[in-house]
Each structure stands twice: as C-alpha cells, then as structure tokens.
Amino acid sequence: MTDTTSAPRAPAAADPGTLRPPWSVRALVAAGLLVGAVAVTWLTFWWIGLSPVALAAGLGDTARLLSRMWPPDLSGAGDVAWMIAETLLIAVAGTGLAVLASVPLAFIAARTHRGPRWLRPAARMVVVLTRAVPTLAFAILFVRIFGLGPPAGALAVAVHSVGMIAKLLADAVEEADPVPAEAARACGAGEVQVAVSTVLPRVFPALTAIVLYRLDINIRTSAVLGVVGAGGIGVALQTALGSLNYHRAAGIICVIVVLVLLLEVLSVAVRRRTGAGRSSGGRTGTAALPAGRAPYDVGWDRRRVLRVAGTAATGVIFLVSLWFLDPDVNRLSSAWTNLRGVLTGMWPPAFSGELLMAVLESLLMALGAAAVGAACGLVLALLTAVNTTPWRPLSSAVRMLLVLVRGVPDLVYALLFVAALGLGPFAGFLALWISSTALAAKFFADSLEQLDPLPHEALTSVGAGRWQAFAAGIWPQFVPSFTGNGLFVADLALRESIVLGIAGAGGIGYLMQESIATLRYDTTAAIIIAITVVVYAIETLARFARRHLL
C-alpha cells in the first residue's frame, strides 16, 4: 500500500454560518473535474493501446501465469522467517529515525515557530521534497551510496517518512492551545523549552497516532524494497521471479499478504488500546485526555505508568532494530565518498525529451487508473456499505475481497503483470487499476456509512424506490466525499506510478534506476525535480478542488 500525507475524511456537517462557494462555482469545478477525468482516461487508453480485445488477452495471459504459479512453494521456511524479521526491522528502524528527525522539523515548519524566519521556508521545503519522492526511489539512490542491504532500506524508509510525519505533526502543533506556550514565554522560557514543556506533551497523542499509521505503511513498503537490493523479503521475491521459479514466487507473495493483513489487524488493535487518534473536538491534546481528568493534573496513575512503560519499550525496540541491521563499517566509511560523487554529479540537472515523456507516461497511467478505479470502486462501495448494499452477505464477501486485494503491494501486481504481459505501461496501468479500485472502494464505503440516514429514510417511508431514494437522499450528500476521496486516490496512484517503472511497468521509475546504474546523476537530479513538481501540482489541484467543492 501506498503511503499518504493524511487519510481522507468525510466532510463534517456544514455550519449554518460557514460560507461556501456559490453553487455555480462548485458546479463549474465539478464539471471541469469530470471532463478532465474522462479526457485523461481516453488519452491513457490511446497511449497504452488499451482496448477490450487487448484487455481480454492481457487478463487471459495473467490467468495462465497464475495457474503456473499454483501450488505455492513455501520451502526454506527458516530463510523466509529471517527475511520477514529483516523486513520488520527495516520498517521499525526507518520509522524511528524519521520520528527523531521529524519532531524538531515539525516545530520549525509550524506557523507558530518564533525562531529565525528563514528556517521555516527551509523546513517546509524539506517536508515537501521528502514527501514527493517515493520510498523506492530513495532506496535506489541509497543502495548506490551505502551498498546493498538493509541499511539502505532503513534510510530510504526514514527519509520518505519524514515528509508525512513532520507535515501532520506541524498541523497538530499549529492547532495546539497557544495559552500555555505564551505563558512560558512570558516567564522567560526559550523556544526549545516552550516546545518541550508545553507543546510536545499536548501533541503527543497525535504524534502516537501518526507514528502508528506511518509504521503500518512502512511495513508494507519494506516488503518490496528488496526488489532494488535494499533488504527484506522483497529480495527473495525478485530472485524467484528472475529465475522463473513461479511456485516459489507465489509462496513468497502469500507470505507478504498474510504478514500485511496480520499487521493491519494488530495496528487497529493497538490504536483502540492506546486511544491514539481519538478526539472529541477542542484543541489538540486536551481532547485526548481521559474523561474527568483536568489538563494540568499531576501525579502518577495507572494510565501514566503504562504510557511511560510503553514509550520506554518502544525506545528499546528501536535500538534493537538498529543493532540488528548491523551495517558494514567498510561500506559506511566509503559512503561519504559515494555521496559526494552523487551530489557533485547532480549539477546541473540534465532535462531531456525522453525524461519528460516518461513523466507524462507516469502521469497518464496514474490519473487514468485512478479515474477508472474510482468508477469501479464506487460500484463495489455501493455493494459494501451497509446503507446501500442489496444483501448483507454480499457486503461481507466484497469487503473481505477488498481487504485481500489491498494486502498485495502495488509493486507485486506490477511484477506479476510484467511477467505475464511483458514490459511497458500496460502492465503498470493494470496494477494501478486494481490497487486504485480497492482503495477507492474502501474510502467510498466508509464515507457512505457516515452519511446522515434521515433523508434516505424519509424518502423510503413515502414510497420512493431504492434508486430514487439513493439519487435524492444519499448521492447529494456523498458528492463531496466522492470528490475528495477520488482526488486522494489519484494522488496515491501518481506516487506509486513513479516506482512501477522499476519493475519494467512503464513510467519514470525505469529511467531513474537506469540513470543511477550508469552514474548519470545529472539525469537523476532532473527526474527528482520533475517528480517533485508534478506531485506538488497534483496536491495543489486537489486543495483547490476541495476548497471550492467541500
């Protein structure tokens, strides 16, 4: 699964006093998005040569590949178990390093920062850059600098995670009650003292929720970092596919899916147990306090003891993960030389027509797959949501299917389609289509179930049919969520399309891997700049659409 800046939310009920854009503006923006989605989808189909005949033939080839992969081969359980452990250690170490870097960066990037004015734009630039470049792209770069193995994977996970953790934590810092901080400043406290003593304790529940969410994403990502030599179970998957040992590859894919699903269940359980992310309104920090407890209560109780013990255990696990990665001292000593060579070779960036066409291909694959995936996901969401499904057992079956589909990383789908269909954007489009459909269906179903049921029930009570009640009672409420979640899926698909080329599935990823392998770092720099600009442009478009529609 892909990582994100933040999970989409259903829009809150409108405040009667809140000013919304005029209906004509909202209708114009909605029509523009619809026309743009249709145009991009048509252009994507033309670009990759997709037709009903080609799609049927491609799915047939994929089905024959899957039949050759059965039954899965799970031999060498000891090696697989160690690779699973290595995958988890990479994710934990990378997430821990990201937290250490993100906390000070978030305080500097927040609008409440009172330090030197030039630091805030610099911090925000770091946040944007690390969030825009995918983890696998960083992994390719760090493998070149630090060599093959888990250290490169852990650093790639850490650098990319900084963008998300720092962004969300900065938002929490800005929302925190400013009164305690102002009181501390009035008493002569410095900015570091203010941050540590008054702000950080209040945003700690939000930080816990962000870290748990990011760790879940990083474990999924770490499962495929081995494809580029950055350690973990992905190494075994790449070896099996490269040697055409499809039974072995199927067994490893099954292990990855089971691992991801188990960790998703564990993550949900931990969030419920710790209360991370719960809020009931109000300023950050106060809402997360237990009922009946004042914000400034002191003393030790059972909850505080468990929190401190959990924090200490987390620190021990992080240190153990760093120790088990066991980086090669000789490689680390030569890393500075490699890093200097990479950085000096990146200037000036070398843009070319081939690079721009590869970026365009990634963009078309992502937006086309997201548009088709949103349409398919809407159908599945209507079958899944409890207030729209025609049959409850069907809802449970579709929901289980979506969980299984989301459990397979996008890069695994790309590797399978490349093995079945050959190199090119067709394989990448199919991989993104599947993942976008499953993700959109989950978001849409969650949003449908959160809608106000009264309009639908009122229409049903006066004799309206199922589709009449849906069109008049559910759909008008659902349009803002559909738009916001659809844009969110498009943003995720764009980030994933960048790395699918590493597996030969079209787009900019292959060109980036090739530029690093051939030491053409000026091309690598141009690719990173192009990726950042495109991702930031899509984020800007999404913010504009939400502001005028929601």
TrEMBL record:
Q: Where in the cell is it found?
A: Cell membrane
Domain ABC transmembrane type-1 as annotated: residue spans: 84-267, 359-542
List the Gene3D superfamilies hit by this protein, alphabetically: MetI-like
> Is Transport among this UniProt entry's keywords?
yes
Q: What Gene Ontology cellular component terms go with this record?
A: plasma membrane
Bilayer-crossing residues are 27-48, 80-110, 122-146, 223-244, 250-270, 305-325, 363-386, 492-512, 524-545
Membrane-topology annotation of the record: Multi-pass membrane protein
Q: What InterPro entries has UniProt attached to this entry?
A: MetI-like (IPR000515), MetI-like_sf (IPR035906), PhnE/PtxC (IPR005769)
User: What CDD domains does the annotation carry?
Assistant: TM_PBP2
- Principal place where this protein is found? membrane
Q: Which UniProt keywords apply?
A: Cell membrane, Membrane, Transmembrane, Transmembrane helix, Transport
Alphabetically, the GO molecular function entries are: ABC-type phosphonate transporter activity
Q: Which PROSITE patterns match?
A: ABC_TM1
Domain of life where this protein originates: Bacteria
Q: What SUPFAM superfamilies does the entry give? A: MetI-like
Q: Which family does it belong to?
A: Belongs to the binding-protein-dependent transport system permease family.
Q: What is this protein called?
A: Phosphonate ABC transporter, permease protein PhnE
Q: What is the originating organism of this protein?
A: Nonomuraea mesophila
> Which lineage is the organism of this entry classified under, starting from the top rank?
Bacteria, Bacillati, Actinomycetota, Actinomycetes, Streptosporangiales
Instruction: Report which gene this protein is encoded by.
Output: phnE
